[in-house]
Amino acid sequence: MSDKEYFEAVQQFYEDRLKSQLKEKFRKCKGCQGDKQFIEKPGQLIYSCGKSSKSKDSKGDKCGHQMTINLARYLHYSEMKEDVNKVMDGSMDLSLFDEIFSKEEINKQNEIIKDNAKLFKKCKKPFSEQNQLKARVNVIKKTHKNRIQLKVEQNLLLHKFKNEEDFVKKQTLMKEYLQINKRIKEEYDELLTSNKPLNNFLVIEEGSVIKST
Ligand SMILES: [Zn+2]
């Protein structure tokens, strides 16, 4: 199942539902007795024309069940990270109080901490890849390095400017100085535009569509 197929099915579900709510003629399809049904269950969307003609009921509908969409499951990386941090940093080490807590309680806590660490480790790489974090850091570093270099050049120009007596040469130096200002600003703007918002949603289960014919 391609992503495209899945997203198109989800879109179709909501579009057809909206149409059927807005206009009488979209409430049924040709050859179907009952209204189209749009059922939302946790993690599932069902698009159906009610009873199928294949069923025992003679007043069945032509389409019957049309499609079932199993929704993709997502995990929000930032929220997950926050929760994991709470568990990792906020948990008291129960083993220090083994007179108060049972072995079972201590083991259970260790298990929870271990699971959280595992979850974080599992998500870190896909999140980084999804958002090209390495490339982002590189661009920031490069821009910063350039900026320092340009500032050095500007200082040299300023120094020359102060010691220069010839008016025309002074003007040229000032122009060069301002040119660099412009470049610094441009590079900074480029950095801002390249730094798109992070996509925090990690797919932990792909969506799927089952169509009935
Ligand atoms: Zn139908």
What would you note in describing this structure?
The chain is of the alpha+beta class and 213 residues long. The protein has 3 domains: 3-71, no CATH class; 75-130, no CATH class; 133-197. It is 57% helix and 14% strand. The protein is flat, with a radius of gyration of 31 Å. Zinc ion binds next to loops.
Protein topology:
Elements: H1 3-22, E1 37-41, E2 44-48, E3 65-70, E4 73-76, H2 77-90, H3 103-130, H4 133-163, H5 167-194, E5 201-205, E6 208-211
Antiparallel strand pairs: 1-2, 2-3, 3-6, 4-5
Short description:
The protein is α+β, with helices and mostly antiparallel strands and 213 residues long.
List descriptors.
5 helices, alpha+beta, 213 residues, 14% strand, binds zinc ion, flat, 57% helix
**How many strands, which pairing sense, and closed or not: the largest β-sheet?**
4 strands, antiparallel
Could you say which small molecules are bound to this protein? zinc ion
- Proportion of helical residues: 55-70%
Q: Tell the overall outline.
A: flat
Query: How many domains is the backbone divided into?
Result: 3
Q: What Rg do the Cα atoms give?
A: 31 Å
Structural category? alpha+beta
Summed over residues and divided by their number, the pLDDT gives a mean of: 90
Spatial sequence of strands, sheet with the most strands: 1-2-3-6
Distance between the termini: 17 Å
Number of helices: 5
